[in-house]
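ok here's the first one, seq then struct tokens
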Amino acid sequence: MADEITETSQTVAAGQLRAFIERVERLEEEKKTIADDIKEVFAEMKGTGFDTKAVRKIIRLRKQDQAERQEEEAILDLYKAALGMT
């Protein structure tokens, strides 16, 4: 009886593990599809004359809150001044 319970537990655990792995695999595939879509949008932007490097920076900045952006800009200004770049 104990062997049956152990075997059943192992079967259940293996099933759960397989389900988790399959979910991650599906999500990875969706992530790849989305990354490909984003790449296409950037190619389209570049084709119409936009500077994609600047656009990427703007997107990164928009993810930050205002205080975080200001702090980053202040540090960047400080470092530029220290290097005589201002």
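and now the second one, same deal
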Amino acid sequence: MHYIKPRKNNLCVENISALSLTKYYKTPFYCYSLSQLKDNFYNFSKAFKKTNPLICFSVKSNSNIVLLKELKKMGSGADVVSAGELLKALKAGISSKKIVFSGVGKTYSELELAIRKKVLLINIESESEAVLINKISKKMNVKTCIGIRLNPNITADTNKKISTGGKDDKFGLSYNASLIFCKQINTLKNLKLKGISVHIGSQITDIKPFKKVIGIIDKFIKKTKINFEFIDLGGGMGISYSEKNKTLNLNNYASLIRKFIKNKKTQIIFEPGRIITGNTSILITKITYIKKNNNKNFIILDAGMNDLMRPALYNAYHKIIPLKKNKKNILGKVEFVGPICESSDKFVNQNNFSKVKEGDYVAITNVGAYGMSLTSNYNTRPIIAEILVSGSKHKLIKKRQSLESLINN
């Protein structure tokens, strides 16, 4: 987080003290750095400049409309998995010709919307889906561009709950089923097969699984003898959540892709999410209580698992840091927990944490991807606010849900 870091013991977001923001916004709230978002997107683009890919930001990782508008300004397209995400991307001004629609369970109405909006590709994940798209397209008297999502039976060294490329995962068609589909595609007169798509999971930091995937796609293309206009390599590139995490070398990945497409007339599509927004945000939260049980200090926050689901859902690690660090005093071993009536409502255990007291504020780091997008009203708690910092300015980009509107709906 180059733009979110401590300065003289005070955590700052760009040129603003994070502590000062608590005077304007009720905690907990998400706080984003616009400069970090821009840095991430342009650095990703720069790494793959020679292959000139279409970058379709994964909207499921963060669907804030203001952030999507900023990404659109940078030239981003969108990868969507629902009608809601498609409509948000379009509302943000992203061209339908830069939108790919993925997902295993697209409904009739969602497919009808995508066809009507003329998205670049609908990546089909079953034969039945292709038949349904053909039926709707025939009814609408149009030809629809599709991609086929290939399940390469490759898993990466990542959390099994975010692994999507294994043979037992629900995503895509197997290699053999994909071959058969390609042979029979001409029977579906209202479809144009323009792309092949793969996505093997998330938070991947090793190039080896990507190299295997490219090898399988290459083999598949030679087998089918189809010159796919688009090769969608998905996303999944990981970020560093702690000092122990390594990150994927994008330049090495780019070199691998250049060799792969050297003699192919095709355009690469990427669907990055986490690598674009993951480190752009912190969740600022207030310490409600501190209590000691046995050898552990429980620090009870006003943020709960409904505000940040990843630790409870994936056992994901998010480092917590104080907004104002006490250099002289150390609290010792602490466990940060939320107010939700679940034992799984806990964030992280940390040792030798800076001395804090009830009423102080801390930040949960690297929450820009799958943070806000996984929030809920569990325990009938309002959805919290999101703010955006740019230089020395800050603004509300999504207001906090009122308790009244929550209760009345």
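notes on #2: The longest strand covers residues 281-293. The radius of gyration is 23 Å.
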